[in-house]
Every structure is written in structure tokens, then in C-alpha cells.
# Entry
Amino acid sequence: MKILQRLAQQTESWWIKEKLKPFYLPMLHKIKYRAANRSFLQEGESVLHAASKALNEIKVFHWLEFGTLLGVVRDGKLISHDTDIDFGVFLGDRSKDIQRAFEKAGFRLVHRLEIDNANYGLEESYELNGVGVDLFYFTKTEKGMYCHLFPFESKNNRLVRELFTTVNEFRIINWQGLDMHIPKEAEQRLRDTYGDFQTPDKNWHTPTQALNSKTIEKPYKEVRT
# Structure
């Protein structure tokens, strides 16, 4: 993988760059995915436990979201082709204590995406043992709740998509010896985003395909470490 990464960097200013891209970029992405998926299969459950424990220690309410919720509800396990863990938290609970708790548990902050200085929208990504943990910050309303997704529009620019779900109440389940919150109407929550969630789709990309999301005109700020 290092050879391919070096090739990608070295060809950045070459005239032949555009001719080589179709060959090395797909291969590079495939290698990166396989490495991330391997780490996920080996460490996914332990990283989920560690992340939940970190949030519990500072009493931050959280629940399983997106692909993690889908795997647990549909399959009773994490999705085998996934690469990260997804949690929902409430935007009103955002604080620097979350980052400190994760870092204390051995995680590192990968990036943070903010809308209006995190007063309107926020997403954070952490990593431990090669496994990513994404925190999606939701705002609760009378009719449901919403969060934001930030898919790439181009190499250096992202879109801002607002996702609304009609579900905003929760229940506790015991999964792999861990008491976890999930949406009370979990199947409805999954239908809102995936439609027919019972049929696996390895090519699904939630940031761009979520059925209950739309692009909004909001500037964002990205912080990377």
C-alpha cells in the first residue's frame, strides 16, 4: 500500500497523472478498504464496547445508529463488510468532555465537521486499533430528530446533507453482554434511511443515498488532526 501511496503523491504534478489515476486509485481504495475491514472484523466489537464505556463514564446518552444499528437489528451482529461504528448522540450534549473521554480510552480524534460552530450541526470521527467510530449529533424535535452528513462533492469540498427521521424515542437492548440504547421503533428508523433494509446492499453509501436526507445550503468547518 505504501508503494501505491507514494506513486499517488509523486504523480501529483506529472502530465501523465490523469492517465495513471484510473489504474492506481481504484487499487489504492480497495487496499485501504480491505485493511479497514480487516481491523473492523477483528476489533469492531471491542471498539464499540470501549466507545460506549467512554460515553457512559461521562453520562452522555448515546445509541446505535446507521450501519451499526442495521447490523444489530437485522443480523444480530455487526455488518461483515463494514469499516466503522456509528453512534447517535444529542447535539445539546456536545462538550469537550467527549473528546477527553475518548482520548483517555485510547482513541484519537480523526476529524470534526461543524455547522455554525457546532451550534446547528456536528459530526466527529475517532479511531482506535484501526477502527473508526463516528458520532452523529442529532437535534430532537416534536416530530422526530435530525442530523447531518458530509459526503465529498470533490476532492477538497463536501456537501452538507440534512437527515430527518420520524423516530426520537429509545429503548434498551442487551447485545454481546452490553446494555445499549437503540431507537424505540428501530425498524421504522431503518426504513426512514434505507427503505428495504432487510436486503443487504454492499454498495450502499449512506451519506449520498440516505432516503430521508437532502442537501442544504449551509457552510461547514472541518477540523482534522
Summary: The chain has a mean pLDDT of 90. DSSP finds six helices and 13 strands in the chain.
